[in-house]
Every structure is written in structure tokens, then in C-alpha cells.
Design brief:
Layout (H helix, E strand, L loop, with lengths): L1 H12 L4 H44 L12 H12 L10 E14 L2 E17 L3 H5 L8 E11 L9
Antiparallel strand pairs: 1-2, 2-3
Helix pairs in contact: 2-3
């Protein structure tokens, strides 16, 4: 009987499973944080892609042979091709939402305002959260989607001063 009592006392004071219990409690929170970092990292990468796509569309739309009047779809096609080449879903989801130009653009450098003729390209993309939307349902929240937009404005090549 004394041996059994000594064994029970020793087992009661043992902490051999404490690490496993602590890991089981901390692991879901750690995974939520890691998946959130991954999701926001992918969203930032997609924002960079659409930002570069807007810049590419504006760069092409401002060239003399590819202006909005000479080739109305060139800037749009260039932006869409850039989004598709980056392996994020293109089509209407990553296509330029608006190409405005030629239009007067006023900017100030060193207190001097200057008006030039330029084009503006805006690209929108709907990002769908991959991990957070599924994990968030366990905690009663919904992440769904986030609309990302980027725009680029460039001066028309060969144009001096405001649009005429």
C-alpha cells in the first residue's frame, strides 16, 4: 500500500505532459498568425502586380503611335496581359477599369505649377482571402474579399503643355 501511495504522489507531481498541453493551446493562435501573414503577403504581391500593370498600360498609352485616339485598346490590352502573365486571375477581374486620356494634368514642383497633357490608367482587382476566410468562420468573423485599385498617370510623349 505504501508503494502505491508513493507512486500516486509521484505521478501527481509529474509535469511530463505540460508541454504538450501548452503546445495544443498555442498552436491554433500561431497558425492563425502565420496564415494571416501569408494571406496579407499574397495580397500585397497582387497589389504590386496591378500597380505595375497600371504603369505598363499608361506607359504604352502615352507613346505617340499608341495613343488613345490611335489605338484605343492598346493600353487596356497591355495591362491585362501584364496581369495574366503574373499568374493572378485576369480577365475582367484584373482588367483596367478606366483609361482616361488625353487629359490635362497639373502638378507642382518647387512652388511652380505646370500643366501637361497625359493619360491616367486605373486597374482594379478583387483579392479573395485564401486562409483567413476559412479560419475566420471558426471565430465568427468573415473576411471575404478586398478590392485593390492602383492608378498610374504619365505625360504624353511629344506633347508640350496642356492638351489642345
Amino acid at each position: 500500500m505504501a508503494a502505491l501511495r508513493a507512486l500516486l504522489t509521484r505521478l501527481r507531481r509529474s509535469e511530463s505532459g505540460a508541454e504538450f498541453v501548452e503546445f495544443a493551446l498555442a498552436f491554433p493562435l500561431l497558425m492563425f498568425i502565420v496564415m494571416g501573414i501569408l494571406d496579407f503577403g499574397m495580397m500585397f504581391e497582387q497589389y504590386e502586380v496591378i500597380s505595375n500593370a497600371a504603369r505598363e498600360g499608361a506607359r504604352l498609352a502615352m507613346l505617340p503611335n499608341y495613343t488613345i485616339t490611335a489605338c484605343p485598346t492598346c493600353g487596356t490590352q497591355r495591362s491585362t496581359d501584364y496581369v495574366n502573365a503574373a499568374l493572378i486571375s485576369g480577365g475582367t477581374n484584373g482588367a483596367p477599369s478606366a483609361i482616361a486620356g488625353p487629359q490635362d494634368i497639373t502638378f507642382t514642383v518647387g512652388g511652380v505649377s505646370t500643366t501637361v497633357c497625359g493619360v491616367n490608367v486605373q486597374v482594379g482587382y478583387t483579392h479573395e482571402y485564401l486562409f483567413l476566410s476559412g479560419i475566420g468562420t471558426y471565430f465568427g468573423s468573415t473576411f471575404g474579399t478586398k478590392r485593390l485599385t492602383a492608378s498610374a498617370t504619365m505625360r504624353l510623349e511629344g506633347a508640350v503643355g496642356p492638351c489642345s
